[in-house]
Structures are given as C-alpha cells and as structure tokens.
Amino acid sequence: MFTTFLIVAALLSFGAAWFIPAKVAKSDTLWKTVPREKNIGIVFAFLALTYGAYHGRFMLEGSLESLRPYVWVVLPIVTVCVYLYLDFILARAIGGLLLLAGVYFPHEAFSNYVEFRAFLSLNCYILGTIGLFFIGMPWLFRNLLEKVKDHALTAKALTVYMAISGLIFLTFAIL
C-alpha cells in the first residue's frame, strides 16, 4: 500500500509540475478559479476527510468507544456541509492532503526501515507545512498561482520543486 501511495504522490507531483507552466502560467483567469473549484475540491476533500475519519475514530477510547460507528455516519454530512458552506474548497483540500502525506509517508518509511528516509521525510515536512498554510489561509494558494502567472521565475521554481518532489516519491516507490 505504501508503494502504491508513493506512486500516486509521484504522479500528482508530476501532474502539478506539468499543470503549472502549461496551464496556470499561460492563463489570465485560471489562478482565480482553480482555488475555488468545488467539484474537484470536494473529491479531494472527501479523500482527506475519509482518511482523517478512519484514523480519528481510533482516538475515541474508553466510554467514547461506542461512538466509533457514528464517525462513518457523520462523514457524508460533513462532506455535504463542506461543499455547501466552505469557500476555497480545492485549496483547503490540497492543503489537507499535503498535511496527511506529511504524516503518512515518514511514518511508513520509518516503520518499513526504508533507506535514506530522511530525504523523503524532509520533502514531506516541507509539503506538510505548505499544506498547513493552505488549510488555514487558502487565499495563499490563489496568491501563489497569481505569482506563477505573473513571474516566470516563480513558475520555474515551483515546477522544478514539484518535479523533484515527484522524483523523490518515485525513487522511494522503486526502492
């Protein structure tokens, strides 16, 4: 499962590395619409909420253990509420997935005794920190995309970082 998730993370990183120069840097309006995209955002949000619900229900211990089945009942309700009432859904969902990846991948790398796991951990901690900012201040995602559109150097730097991140994930999937 760890290898599969690493390959998915690599593909998403390579997709972001392609999307930044090919679409965002050349469009005048994409930087405004992408962070507020509801349909794609709710898919990513549902994935992040499902992962969080799965692990969050183990925190219900003692007398709260009887509430564990209700976590799955609350999950679709929270997802619908996110869709209806939350702004910048895609930016927040990407932030949530980055944050979850920043926890999951280092944990699995250390659990499986993967060699050179410090490189994977560093990459994940950088992505997780970025994810924290995208969750708390989602307009930073929009501002980053605007800067990518306006400044070629920012677009190149972000493209290179996402490509390197994808290579790190792919390398650890192969190891």
Q: What would a concise description of this structure say?
A:
The chain has eight helices and no strands.
Describe the model.
The chain is built from eight helices and no strands. It is mostly helical and 175 residues long. It has one domain. α5 (89-111) runs antiparallel to α6 (117-136). The chain starts with a helix and ends with a helix. The mean pLDDT is 92.
User: Radius of gyration, rounded?
Assistant: 17 Å
Order of helices and strands: HHHHHHHH
Helix content: over 70%
Largest sheet: none
Question: Could you tell me the strand content as a percent range?
Answer: under 5%
- Residue stretches low in confidence (pLDDT < 50, at least 5 long) are none
Domain module tally = 1
What global shape is seen? flat
Distance between termini?
14 Å
What structural category arises from helix and sheet content? mainly alpha
Give the strand tally: 0
Mean pLDDT: 92
Number of helices, where a helix is a run of at least 4 consecutive DSSP H or I residues: 8
